[in-house]
Amino acid sequence: MTVDTQPAPRFPDPRDFGFTVLDEAEIPAELTALVGQVRSLVDAVAHTEAGPEALERARAAAAEATAALGGERRAIGAMVRHTRPDGGAEYGTVTNIVAGPTNPAAPPLRLERDGDGLRGEVVLGGVYQGPPGLVHGGWIAALLDQALGSAANAAGVPCLTAKLDVDYRDPTPLNVPLHITARVTGAERRKVFVSAEIRHNGEVTAEGTAIMVRIPLPG
Ligand SMILES: CCCCCCCC(=O)SCCNC(=O)CCNC(=O)[C@H](O)C(C)(C)COP(=O)(O)OP(=O)(O)OC[C@H]1O[C@@H](n2cnc3c(N)ncnc32)[C@H](O)[C@@H]1OP(=O)(O)O
């Protein structure tokens, strides 16, 4: 593969392109706690064998909780800024389905810089089940896509996934720590090549490679 460009050193500020950006420190602790509680609720609902009375009580409490949040909604496309220890900034959508900090439908995945790439750890419970006791293959692809996209973005390159290849090496179990790593392996014109793995107990369960394409930005 030809490597003829280096990623830009600094990710552009999304505010310059009309996006709303909040700093992750601005996310209220109460919202973070609510997100965690709703994740527990989703797990409880998915697995409950409670009787009709308890189910109706739970439904009414959930309806009350929904009403308590009122009609105040964050705009679609709102972004969150994470400031790294070295002072650099990284951005993601605040409701990203794989790693959005305000999205209870997202697993609590946090990807941190590790050398030239990124690493993170996540435990996926029963609501991510595909085959019995195993993580759904679509979610494995989603985790890899997020890690691959984040690795390209962490290298200062705003881009979208053009092509994603996933190799499912071994079944990925539920309810155990999964270790995710990703890194940029090369670049060619607007294409950025990235590679990622998911490991359990040090063994690779899935590998992903992607071609990300840099988004042309005005100016
Ligand atoms: C914070 C991080 C969050 C990460 C979130 C996770 C990532 C995501 O989920 S992104 C969402 C999913 N992806 C998308 O929605 C993308 C949809 N596709 C598109 O918008 C366009 O096809 C796009 C932008 C990828 C490329 O289109 P365009 O800008 O017209 O590029 P184009 O000029 O055709 O191609 C540029 C280069 O990429 C290559 N390329 C484009 N598509 C592909 C493809 N599918 N396979 C291989 N190469 C491709 C072209 O061959 C060309 O290469 P070269 O420089 O050698 O000629």
Report on the architecture of this protein.
By secondary structure, the chain is α+β, with helices and mostly antiparallel strands. It has a domain at 106-214: Hotdog Thioesterase (Thiol Ester Dehydrase, Chain A, Roll), CATH 3.10.129.10. 25% of the residues lie in helices and 32% in strands. The chain has three helices and nine strands; from the N terminus they run E-H-H-E-E-E-E-H-E-E-E-E. Strands 4-5-7-8-9-6 form a six-stranded antiparallel β-sheet, covered by helices on one side. A hairpin with a 2-residue loop joins strand 8 and strand 9 (203-214). The radius of gyration is 19 Å and the shape is globular. Mean pLDDT is 93; it is low at 1-5. The structure holds octanoyl-coenzyme A. Octanoyl-coenzyme A is lined by residues 92, 145-146, 149-150, 153, 160-163, 189-191, 211, 213.
